[in-house]
Amino acid sequence: MKESDNEQYYKRGTLAVLGVLRDIERDGTPIMVSHARGQFISHILSVDKELLVIDYGSNDYDNQVTLEMRSLAITAEMKGAKVEFNLEQLHETHFGGLPAFSTPLPSELLQIQRREYFRISAPLDPIFYCHASWPEGGKARFRLQDISLGGIGVLVEGDMPENLVCGDLWRGMRLDMGEYGELQVDGQLLHVGTRTTVSSKNETVSTPRLSFSFTSLSAAQERQLQQIIFSLERVAREKAMRFR
Description:
By secondary structure, the protein is α+β, with helices and mostly antiparallel strands. Helices cover 21% and strands 47% of the residues. Keywords: Bacterial flagellum, c-di-GMP, Cell projection, Cilium, Flagellum, Nucleotide-binding.
């Protein structure tokens, strides 16, 4: 968006900024910390009127590089909105006896309400798969039914546990999209439903369907996924033109 278009989405002043960051902290929403030499996913550990404390990343080298940076961008996806703000520098501190980053509260941030994500159906040939693990243990393979930048819908192959809980986090889901490559994501289960179709024998076939939202995508993953969606859209459009 142009700067003028963004103006309506700015939160400025201590109380407005603090309110948004406290929501991110309370919900445990992942944040993406990006700078000129890399990026990593972290969480807000603490925030008050004076100080913002961010968890260290999992890689010691990345943490040391981050301390050298003088310009950082922070992004988070929360409740259908994207939050963005910039920081000049992070400093080393400790939180709960463990190393962490600290920085003064930003003076402003962007909170942009997302529109409905464009969702496209996955192809039937070749079939795209989602490999995951059931919350109670055991491997699962789903057929990818549709995909968007916000999440996926999958069809369950075989038996499904009865105690699935909406809101649960599913980590390390692997999306196998054939020639388009693979993507490993974390998802939150939004809905357990059923897809009903009619077979060639005029019989009603019901297949369990699960809907997931992505809890976080890196900038690279989002770009990759957007390219896949664009490609699938183009293929679907070309196929539709051939059958007109």
